[in-house]
Amino acid sequence: FHFAGHEIRITEATDCYGAVVWPSALVLSYYLETHSKQCNLVDKNVIEIGAGTGLVSIVASLLGASVTATDLPELLGNLQYNILQNTKQKCKHQPCVKELSWGIDLEKNFPRSSCHFDYIMAADVVYHHPFLDELLLTFDHLCKNDTVILWAMKFRLENENRFVDRFQTLFDLEMVSNFPSLNIALYKAMRKGRMR
């Protein structure tokens, strides 16, 4: 992959969902690169949830952000490897990798009082899995009044639409990019009443 003036090499694994680069991650990475003026990431605090192979986290880091890449414990090895390979001595802030199981120990691992993220990024975190309630809880926990959520999503089944409806009870949502041929939409969201 080529983003932010760098060649990015990603190691994938075929044995689990989280170890593959999904098209939504490419869409979000492309958006970050092409909208770097409107969405200036320099010195911004960014968390990626469901980081998978780490592509979005790597691109955000190369664009100057201080990034926390998170995923399930079994994915952290590959995620750490990819991030280190592609960011070492190339970034202003070395990204960190942290375990995050949606909805679990949020206050313990990401205390509201000390964790402030300018951006929450997510690519393809909504698909046919039983943790949509926990995902919504996680967005809610990590999002402050001035946090911007950038979320790329592939629409596959009715579940996705239902999740979007539930998401909109807490957040204002604006589609910033759409790729109908891929069935992917890129959203920007903020807490209700905070969109400018």
Automatic annotation (TrEMBL):
PANTHER family to which the protein is assigned, alphabetical: HEPATOCELLULAR CARCINOMA-ASSOCIATED ANTIGEN, METHYLTRANSFERASE-LIKE PROTEIN 21E PSEUDOGENE-RELATED
Organism: Loxia leucoptera
Key words, A-Z: Methyltransferase, S-adenosyl-L-methionine, Transferase
GO biological process assignments: methylation
GO molecular function: methyltransferase activity
CDD domains noted in UniProt: AdoMet_MTases (cd02440)
Organism domain of life: Eukaryota
Protein name, as recorded: MT21E methyltransferase
